[in-house]
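1st attempt posting a full record on here, be nice pls
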Amino acid sequence: MVVHSVARELPRGFALTAIAYGCSAAASLLHLTTVFTGNPEPSSIAFLLLTACYSLIIVALGLMTRAQANGPRVLWVLALALFAVSASHLGRSHAGDDGWAVELVGHHSAVPLVLAILYQDYRFALADLFLKRALTLIAIVAIAFTGYTVVSTLPAGPLAAGVLLGMWVATSLVSPWLHRRMVRFVDQSLLGRADYTELRGHIGQALQAQNTVAGVLDTACTRLAPALAARQAWWSDDAGVDEPRAVTSEGLVPTTDQPRYRVRIGELTGGRRLLSDDIALVESVLASAARRIDQIRLTHERYEVQLREEEMLKLTAEAELKALRAQVNPHFLFNALTTIGYLIESAPPRALNTLMQLTALLRGILRSEGEFTTLGRELELVEHYLRIEHERFEERLRVRIDVPHSLRGIRIPALVLQPLVENAIKHGVAPSRSGGDVEVTAAVDGSRLRLRVRNTGAPLRAMPSHAEPLDVAQGEPFDAAHGTEHVGVRNVRRRLAGHYGDSASLTLYSEVGYTIADIVMPAAAIVAIEEHDDSQAVAGRTR
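the predicted structure (as tokens):
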């Protein structure tokens, strides 16, 4: 069988195989002859014939296969075969106390040869595990046999029993270490494998470094091919067409969601096939790849959801801004036009100035320049509005604007101050016969921009006396007159939340004799732009 296994693909292999079978047949006939003649021992001539014949054949096979790619493995088999043939003489009967030990070695001399042929030509998925277990068992038996040989030389008694028990315990303790050594010997020396445990860790780190599905699969294939001594490894969709290339093995990447992918391993060098540890490595790598792909998909899904949410918030903010721009308080227009009509009769120059202020205010509110503007332009709208209201309330309305010129170039969301000023006049100044004060201030407090509108008159009855932001989802601050928040103030609050989330706030609270509205923005929202001449901007909008 050894000759047939090695020589079947050689040019003159048939002749060598025929000679080998002929020698075996002749030896068998010689052994049968001794049986029929009544000789209890095997034929010594048959042993000599086998030894001489197979020694010559094995030398010939070694010369013929030395240039083959799997030549080293063939030489291993040939060496084991030579050992089996030469050791079979030990199978003859021997006299003396150690005769049984010699015969034991002789009868089992072919076991290594069987294991080698099993791995060489009859490999199966568990061949590597079988070989590791078998070699471990052989080593343990050898240790036990050696120990028993030593004990047998001792006189029977407690000493021999103690030594035997100690060697039994030592054998049990050394068995795990011996198995690990055999595993390493088979993996590194016989199979030429890398350390699969360490390799799994390296591949896992490489997979985690990838941010695309294709990158994960390419990395898995690139790392698996050399580890398995495969000529090629590739991946494709699970629903893809059959590959025309030769495939040694393939595995499904077990991702949670579709689409799924398959990784295919091409032919292995030296005609090998995947064994159990190889298959376990492939399954482990594919499982790691699947987990990384699931992470990438989940991250992309969350990112897409976040983008959609941000887009919705942006659209909502734009819609609310457009609604706020289109919303001009009819009572304010009625009062402004009434004031203009009165001034036309009593003070035409003041009427013209008020009309120009109203025109500039409406143009500033209705113009479309995006969601952000500068603090300076926002203050221009406030000033136009306050001038119109001053013509209405005259000395009852007292205004103070304290905003440093250096802050007027800061970008802020459009129309966040004018609704607060309108709310202050409507609910703080108008109800009072003596009128009231309205103050607009701005300052940078540490890393935050603070805009404040403070007015006298009617405090907030439902608000605490200290500054405390009110969550829109839980409730809304009450105004002084009706206990409900002005729609413009509500829109300002929502737009701030849409732009900055929890990083910005609009707080309404009361102090003694004052109602205060505070807008606080984070430092990240403070972006200076080129300063502009406010007077030129006003002139440009009033021409």
